[in-house]
Amino acid sequence: MDEFLKQALEIVKAQAGIRAMTEEEMTSMVVKIAASLRSVADGTPCAGPAVESATETHGDPKKAIKEKSITCMECGKTFKVLTKKHLATHDLTADEYREKHGYKKKTSLIAKSLSKARRKKMQEMELWKKKGAKPGKAN
């Protein structure tokens, strides 16, 4: 087996151990990395395919926040909430994630239906009203 291919396989194996990857992602990454390693060894300038795969996003950020799910733009998985723990697997904070993918600073990384349900629940709880206050009297 080609030495560059072996090295590329080791790199992709390590990457796959850190994050979930599809079979297609793994094979394309092996090919790109092997070609990059080969071009570096030959002394020819490479076009930087390894950098492209690192900045690759999964879909349109505007379409990522859906009614029942939110799609992580880094790995393509769907969630109800993009948590700090998940974003940490991509070495990002919520603020860095928003900035990287063009979201506004106040955009919540949560599915729309879950956000609506939480808002409705909070309105029903009426936490802004003082306990023990009689209705109709302003304190």
From TrEMBL:
GO terms for molecular function: DNA binding; zinc ion binding. One of its GO terms (biological process) is regulation of DNA-templated transcription. Coiled coil: none annotated. Signal peptide: none annotated. It comes from the Bacteria. It holds the Pfam family ROS_MUCR. Belongs to the ros/MucR family. This is Transcriptional regulator, MucR family. It comes from Desulfonatronum thiosulfatophilum.
